[in-house]
Write a structure and sequence with these properties.
The protein has twelve helices and twelve strands. The protein is an alpha/beta fold. The chain folds into two domains: 115 residues, Rossmann fold, CATH 3.40.50; 177 residues, 3-Layer(aba) Sandwich (Rossmann fold), CATH 3.40.50.970. Helix 1 links the parallel strand 1 and strand 2. Helix 1 runs parallel beside helix 3 and helix 4 packs parallel to helix 12. The longest helix has 14 residues. The N and C termini lie far apart (44 Å).
């Protein structure tokens, strides 16, 4: 409490198993009461988003952006979140994100009672009746023309049903989708928290079984999907209400990006390395793969096609797959 009332630049960084709507609103009240910034970790395992949920920052993924994001912070208060570090090691980039001289204080670990901690802070700061900052409901217009991750994100934000569960393993594509769905209908967003891929499809199965009355949208990179593609068969067998969107750029785009950031070979992989980062020869046919496992599937090559296919998937019940052919972001 003394740090929050010190008059210095403070940030509360929250993590843990979930940042549900209640926690987000409590955090917003605390931040407003003492003038502190409030933020989630880079990849919160579960976060409530959309209209009516708290306005929270999110620590950027790229180390340079994260360093700049908190460069003026004097006190970093950690609630269920670890001290921030860069996701990978890079030449001439410090691994520790917090600025030198920043006082890092662990108020609660990930296994502590985070709700109790936030409630105690609210009481100590006399912030229980502070009005939190919440997201408005702003539904974007439908895009037209070329299909890319930005246009797909607008379509998803337009049609996303209230109380949906979004499972995000879209990797580089998610860099656009996450911010563009901030003011959609209220929903829960599940993130891949580590660097291993293949989690998204089975996590979607788990979400659909746990919450059978809620629509699940599984955002998948093409490379990530192939690690656990057999999950499609389970979706069909159990008739789960999951819409899978494959962002098919036929590359491990994130690995290309990370290779460039190492500076090796001037940031450009050689022919053999480049060939291992491409997903082609032969190209994977996700429509055929899904159909072969009993999941209705379509392919979208334009924004209009994606609009129509995603709208139909949101209106229907049961498993669907949309193979969205998109260019890479980089």
């Amino acid at each position: 409490v003394a740090k929050l009332k010190s008059g210095k630049n403070c940030m509360i960084l929250i993590g843990g198993r979930e940042v549900d709507s209640q926690r987000g609103l409590m955090l917003s009240r605390i931040g407003k009461a003492c003038g502190s910034r409030v933020s989630t970790d880079v990849f919160p395992a579960r976060v409530a988003r959309g209209a009516g949920t708290a306005v929270l920052d999110r620590l950027p993924y790229l180390a340079e952006l994260a360093i700049d994001h908190i460069k003026d912070v004097d006190h970093l208060i950690l609630i269920g979140a670890p001290a921030p570090v860069s996701f990978f090691a890079y030449p001439n980039v410090p691994s520790a994100i917090a600025p030198q001289g920043c006082d890092e204080f662990v108020l609660a670990g990930p296994d502590d009672d985070i709700d109790q901690v936030l409630e105690a802070l609210l009481e100590k700061l006399d912030a229980i009746n502070v009005e939190p900052d919440v997201q408005p409901l702003t539904i974007p217009d439908l895009p037209s023309g070329a299909l890319d991750v930005n246009s797909a994100a607008l379509t998803i934000a337009h049609f996303l049903p209230e109380n949906a569960i979004v499972v995000d393993e879209s990797i580089t594509s998610g860099m656009s989708i996450f911010p563009l769905t901030t003011t959609a209908q209220p929903h829960d967003w599940l993130n891949l928290t580590g660097g291993a891929i293949g989690w998204g499809l089975p996590a979607s199965v788990g979400a659909a079984i746990a919450c059978p009355q809620r629509k699940v949208i599984s955002l998948e990179g093409d490379g990530s999907a192939m690690y656990t593609i057999q999950s499609l068969w389970t979706m069909a067998r159990e008739n789960l209400d999951i819409t899978v969107v494959i962002f098919n750029n036929r590359k491990y785009s994130v690995l290309e990006m990370e290779f460039a950031r190492t500076g090796a070979r001037g940031g450009t992989p050689g022919p053999k390395a480049a060939s291992t980062l491409a997903i082609g020869g032969p190209d994977m046919d996700f429509v055929a793969l899904a159909t072969g496992m009993g999941v209705q599937a379509t392919r979208a090559t334009t924004a209009e096609e994606f609009n129509s296919q995603f709208e139909q998937a949101m209106q229907a019940k049961g498993p669907r797959l949309i193979d969205a052919m998109v260019p890479t972001l980089f």
